Amino acid sequence: xxxxxxxxxxxxxxxxxxxxxxxxxxxxxxxxxxxxxxxxxxxxxxxxxxxxxxxxxxxxxxxxxxxxxxxxxxxxxxxxxxxxxxxxxxxxxxxxxxxxxxxxxxxxxxxxxxxxxxxxxxxxxxxxxxxxxxxxxxxxxxxxxxxxxxxxxxxxxxxxxxxxxxxxxxxxxxxxxxxxxxxxxxxxxxxxxxxxxxxxxxxxxxxxxxxxxxxxxxxxxxx
Length: 223
Prior knowledge:
The chain is of the alpha/beta class. The protein has six helices and nine strands; from the N terminus they run E-H-E-H-E-H-E-H-E-H-E-H-E-E-E. The two termini are 33 Å apart. The protein has helices at residues 11-22, 51-58, 74-89, 102-114, 128-137, 163-176; strands spanning 2-6, 26-35, 62-67, 93-95, 118-120, 141-147, 187-193, 203-212, 215-222. It has a five-stranded parallel beta sheet, with helices on both faces. A four-stranded antiparallel beta sheet has the order 7-6-9-8, with no helix packed on it. It is globular, with a radius of gyration of 16 Å. It has two domains: 2-120, Rossmann fold; 139-222, putative n-type atp pyrophosphatase, domain 2 (Alpha-Beta Complex).
């Protein structure tokens, strides 16, 4: 079973790849979409260009495509790159990190149906607090690189997901109804280490930007 991973560098796509490998899938390549629209409905954008460093320590080829990020039209670009990967790497499965987003899952499923590919969503409907604990137990080191919802602010940038983090987002989930794992776009992440990596990645430098009320992103440079 040859699989390609829809890969953003964040916790969900990386953990989905990890679970797929544990389930016996052969990971053949990573597919990353660089969206020019920072508010893309489909694609993660903070520090996205650093996925090449993750691909290196995973020992996997990285296939990249740029998109303007126009809603629905960006799906045509995704279809094109998946079709290219299917032909080049002879895959039969696309792995996604979809957790609760019906919008993303349904559209990727439609693309896979069109291309006669299996769509594997190993995280689908995981309970978010249990999922965060599962990430820690699996030795994932995950950094916050974007926050986009009240009451999150710039102080959350650079934080590592640990037991203290989980305790705090549990409180915010109960009080403000945010998704504790960030599936609603509340925050974005970047994986610095996990069992798929040959070594831990280090942040060489970073730049933070305020993009509006309760909207901050961190662009990192990885060494």
